[in-house]
Amino acid sequence: MKLKHIEVFSKDEIQEIHSASIQLLTDVGMKIDAQDARNLLKENGAEVDTESKFVKFPEALIQEKLKKVPDHFKLHGPDGHFNFEINTKDTVFATIGTPVKIYDPLQKKGIRKTLFSDTIQQIKIVDSLENILCSHIDVWPNDISYITIHVHCIYQWAKNTKKPYGLGCLGKLASTDMMKMTSMIVGGEEELIKRPRLVGFMNPTSPLHLPLIMTNGFAVFTKYKQPTIIAPEALAGSSAPVTLAGLLTQTNAEILGSIVLSQIYNSGAPVFYGTVSHITDMRTGNSAMGSPEMGLITAGIAQLARYYNIPSRGPGGGTDSKVLDMQNGIERLQTLMLAAQAGVNYITCAGTYEATLVEALELLVIDDELAGMVQRAVEGINVNEDTIGLDVIKKVTTSEKKGVNFLAERHTRDHMKSELYFPKLLDRSRRTTWYKKGAKDIITRAREKVDQILQAHKPNELPEDLDSKLLNFIKNVESRTFDDYKKAEGLRVSKITLPDGIEIKEDDK
Amino acid sequence: MSIEDEMRQFVEEWDKEGLKAMCKSLIDKGEASPEELLKFIGNIMKFIGEQFENEEIFLPDLIGAADTVKDTIDEILDPAIRKSGGKKETLGKVIIGTVESDVHSIGKDLVGSFLFANGFEVFNLGVEVTADEFISKAEEVGAQVIGLSSLLTMSMDFQRQVIEELINRGLRDKYIVIVGGAPTSEDWAEQIGADGWADDAIEAVELINNLITK
Q1: Which residues does chain A have within 8 Å of residue B63's beta carbon, measured at their own beta carbons?
Q2: Whole-number Å distance between alpha carbons of A298 and A275
Q3: Residue A268 in contact with residue A215, Cβ under 8 Å?
Q4: Which residues lie below 8 Å from residue A47, measured CB to CB, with a gap of 6+?
Q5: CATH number of the domain that residue B144 is part of
């Protein structure tokens, strides 16, 4: 049988958490910045306080909308051939993390700023991996304008992979661009809605807050029925109670509130019940992603997701290490294994370290190997007459032939590939062979694999007219100003700082 | 489909009886000589060996294939060659076995399969083989190499005893003696006066190739 899921709650405890979350949503509600979202919720019976922007959710509304959420859906690559199912039983591995720096051993500090060329390389590598099935806009391209990143990335996605892609719900305008552009690539909006290509991530801000821009983007993604990952990043002890039960109660409310909104936007829109929550380190105030508590939180989220019968998403392979060292290895396997054992259906963050702030393409291919190993572990032991193999045991042990073993038995040949995981990067050779092959450690071997993949990778052939249409689309987006974005999102702040350090002052015209 | 291709299918399917029947019928009808068929088998094993090296296939595939062709060689081709007064060409004859007081067999068998797959004639004497058994067989078949396996620190010393026995009988220079097994090492081989040591089956083939052509 398959490995039993780790459960962190008893039946009563999960009920207790659920009731407490419902109480939070009915008594306190969530602060929702987007006015149109508040209006829609009001139309559906929610109680809205216009001044504080808090929306209280009636329990009946929550229950009704939870019933509409699909328990499985498919994700497709650009041309629709490659696809996989997300459901509440299986585990799929993917990236995500938004690292802004990348491993570079030639630099003094061992890292440098990520560039668009890194973003493209990451897409190509994921395309070639066996166990990592989806890439997201992970590696942040610091060298291109913030307001055009989404279109440049989608163009490179269409050109360089057969797998689906993920982006943030980066506001109304950018998300609409994503849908329009992807529709062009896949042959129309109808096709995109029918067979989703994009995953959107939507992070409620803890505690209990849906920020404006993300919610605007969330509306667009759900309208096009592209699956969204609803994943608060609450930190125990700073943006949530230090108690893990408290954090899970609070984030459960954040996720349920967001799910209700998604189903109001578009009934039946697919969502992931997700998390990136972890803890605050009580010595430094830093977040600690490689902590064992993160594994417990992720396990709790997976169990809650099963309770609601919604596919779950959680991080695995998280580490706080700043280098490719033992800590990096210990923490990444621990969090990955825990996530898989907990039954998380979509495990993310492959290829990242330093709390997902830094990418290493070497780690990406190592994580593909780890994912294969972990996948094998959770499959457990398959028991039937054939796998018990009484006949072959009898045959080998009673054979009169000199030097008989199981290696040359048909039973071995027939079952080896389903029973054993065949590692590609882990070295199992004897010392002499290992020396002869250059005495390389796993990072060196991983680098070689990265180089091989990049060298062999063949881009997709885009029809010429499509290519020029896409390039034209990008050109139009490039001609926009920040004001266009602000207007589209209804921004009313005096100053915002974008991730690339650019400050925007509200001119309040 | 060529004869070789057809034979390769039997080998890849581990169809011992099929391969034997095919070779027998070809020889009986005079459609192919046993020497020719042996050459095809050499080609097939070389092809399978390359697939293994490229990690396209795995250990059971390789050993199963070697196991399959061995029966055909032993039961059909060898007797036919002998009957016609011909001489079988191999890269060399190698005696292998696990030394006295040690019953570990798999590593040594792997070495045997790899040597066989690479064109050597292998005499696998099994486990708990005494010094006399090693030497007598080597003398009997005219071997070039004696390979001594030991998996236990406690049985390692019997490797030395085989070499001492060869010296006692005045036969030491006649044979290349190689040793292997998890507790052994290059230093150990040197210490007991062996001619070589290998870490695994793949290394062993290379080692013997080098020693024989020296």
Answers
A1: 407-408
A2: 7
A3: no
A4: A29, A55, A56, A58
A5: 3.40.50.280
Task: Kindly indicate the confidence band of residue A427, based on its pLDDT and cuts at 50, 70 and 90.
Answer: very high
Report yes or no: B59 and B53 within 8 Å, Cβ to Cβ.
Answer: no
- Cβ contact, residue pair A429, B200, below 8 Å: yes
Residue type, B126: G
- Measured CA to CA, the distance from residue A68 to residue A397 in angstroms comes to 58
Which residue of chain B comes nearest to A436, CA vs CA? B203
Catalytic residue among B113, B149, B150, B155: B155
Can you tell me the distance from the alpha carbon of A187 to that of A348, in angstroms, rounded to the nearest whole number? Answer: 29
Residue by residue, DSSP assigns A80-116 as SSSEEEE-SS--EEE-----SEEE-TTSTTSEEE--H
Q: How confident is the model at residue A2 (pLDDT cuts 50, 70, 90)?
A: confident
| Residue B45, token pair as written in the block | 């094993």
Tens digit of each residue's pLDDT (9 = 90 or more) over A352-405: 999 999 999 999 999 999 999 999 999 999 999 999 999 999 999 998 775 578
Q: What is the distance between the alpha carbons of residues A347 and A357, in angstroms, rounded to a whole number?
A: 17
- Residue in chain B closest to A407 (alpha carbons) equals B60
Domain membership of residue B88 (yes or no) is no
Closest C-alpha among A277, A290, A382 to residue A337: A290
B63/A407 CB distance under 8 A? yes
Q: What are phi and psi of B9, to 5 degrees?
A: -60, -45
> Hey, is the C-beta of A403 within 8 angstroms of any chain B C-beta?
yes
Q: Are A335 and A316 in contact (CB under 8 A)?
A: yes
Q: Could you list the residue range(s) of the whole structural domain that residue B189 is in?
A: 93-213
Distance CA A125, CA A108 (A): 26
Straight-line distance from the first to the last Cα atom of chain A, in angstroms, rounded to the nearest whole number:
65
Residues 6+ apart with CB under 8 A from A481: none
pLDDT at B120: 93
B155 included as an active-site residue: yes
User: pLDDT for B76-126, tens place per residue?
Assistant: 999 998 888 877 778 999 999 999 998 888 889 889 989 998 889 999 999
- Rounded to an integer, what distance in angstroms lies between the CA atom of residue A399 and that of residue A391? 12
Q: Which residues of A touch B60 (CB under 8 A)?
A: 407-409, 412-413, 416
As a whole number, mean pLDDT of residues A424-441 equals 92
Strand partners, A346: A92, A313
Domain at B62, CATH number: 1.10.1240.10
* Contact present, A246 and A240 (Cβ < 8 Å): yes
Domain count, chain B: 2
Q: Are A273 and A232 in contact, with CB atoms under 8 Å apart?
A: no
- B179: helix, coil or strand? strand
Closest in A402, A416, A432 to B126, CB measured: A402
**DSSP class of A246:** H
Q: Give the pLDDT confidence score for residue B105 in this predicted structure.
A: 86
Greater confidence (B192 vs B102) lies with B192
- Bridge-based pairing of strands A312-315 and A271-274 is parallel
A416/B58 CB distance under 8 A: yes
Active-site annotation holds for B200: no
Residue A500 has pLDDT above 60, yes or no: no
| CATH code that applies to domain A66-379 | 3.20.20.480
Is B111 part of any domain?
yes
